[in-house]
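dumping the sequnces here before i forget
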Amino acid sequence: MRNVLTLVVREMGAYFRSPIGYSVPILFWVLAGLRFYLDLEWTQGDVEAALAQLMGGVHFWLLTFLIVPALTMRLLAEERRSGTLEMLLTAPVEDWEVVAGKFLGAWLFYAFLWVPLPLYLAAVIFLGGSPDLGAVAANFLGVLLVGALFLAVGLFCSSLTSNQIIAALMCAVGLLVVSFLPEVARLFPRILWIQIAGDQLSFFHHFDEFRSGVVDGRPVVYILTLIGLALFLTARSLEARKWR
Amino acid sequence: MIEAISLHKRFGPVQALRDVSFGVAQGEVAAFLGPNGAGKTTCMRILTGFLPASAGRAVVAGFDVAAQSRAARAALGYLPESVPLPGDMRVREYLDFRARIKRVAVRQRRRRIATVVERCGLETMKARLVGRLSKGYRQRVGLADALVADPPVLIFDEPTVGLDPNQTVEVRRLIAELGAERTVLLSTHILSEAEAISGRIIIIHHGRILIEDTPAGLQRRVHAHRPIRVEIAGAAAPACRAALAELTGVRRVAAADDAGSHGGEWHGLAVHHDTETDLREAIFALARERGWRLRELHREDLSLEQIFRAVTGADAGKGGADA
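..and the predicted 3d for all of it:
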């Protein structure tokens, strides 16, 4: 575990030293903040609605789809390109530790993007609003879980290539596929089990449960399973150097 | 400390290593000598656990590199050929990261880093970004990284490539120091380098070990293939050649390859011979006797190709048919 911690610290450091470490938070904070402000204004102070928009509205998804490839494309592709992967994997470190360290580093950075959220809440409460904090917490848990899943998909894509641009493109496609599994299933209208499975796999459906303030074990398990799968595939892809 | 037992490696249709076996004992510096693509890097990557062998076994510090990969890796320091380093970190910070990842105990970390920084001459570069360092300093950072956990086994892939002559001398001296107490395996494609720093030379070509010998032993084998380069004035070129050709053991005397570059009274000649003894003394004596002036007298270094020809030629004489 200590190796994982070392790698997480290293990864966070890499974020804050790269242009991405500055540009992504600024972009995110400006856009999300603006959106939150406008939502508050349009709904004439309906805090719950504005928060729900912030953590699950169209803009949320657009931003996430933009940000996740930017955060993950570098992770392993750059190590592969520059050859530092060889340095890393010839140190007494396991492949899974590298994967876990990269993943957690990216996830912490993603969580860091949400630093303004408690500030918004504080401001809202200070101004006399009374948001349902439990619901906000449930919604935020959903945000963190979805972020983790998307980052895991991005990490996997980054492990497949040594080109960051290709990693980002694959990640974008991968996120679309993961997000629209039911729609993908609808391409096969005659096969019933795919239909049923597809509906169960609906991401937005699960996510909406979090948004409505309900924390059900099933979507949590579902998302954690997908994360585990993506990370497992990433570790296998690192190991694939040995299969040639 | 390092043991390779019948290693084979295949990349699809390409057979990169064939039946490579050798050992390196503690306190020994061994050099892989071979041209690019000979299999040196592949073999080192197998020893470091980065790639698995297609067949065969490798043991580092008593640990099987496949079955006990982590323990084997913990016992070795590795410097890959191109010295890949993350450009965004500072030297000190990078070494600290590497020391952590290699599990150097907390209390020793600071001291170990200070030691390797000093040993590799990085004091003035500690606060620099790795990405801004010159090739020579990158190499030193790579060496410092390999040494930071104080491993008993060191594997250096082409440690002096791209260094200027002064840096090369420094790195060679460092490796010689390290070799006193540790096991070192390095690779190079320069014979004189292998001779200068290693106690044993393993010549590898087309994924096969051609020869394994001490520098002195290798010298004996290739000695007869190293022409002696002389530059003489004080007599006509044909007379010089004729006189040199009279010496015992001389096969033929040719104009040196670069003879055209210096005309006038100086004649550049290459004395080819087939004797075990060093002809340089005899040539000097001859020059003194004839009243020639001599301004150059040395044995030519052989290129790798010439060595292979020499070595495989000798083998062919005994019935082998390699190369």
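The first helix of chain B runs from residue 40 to 47.
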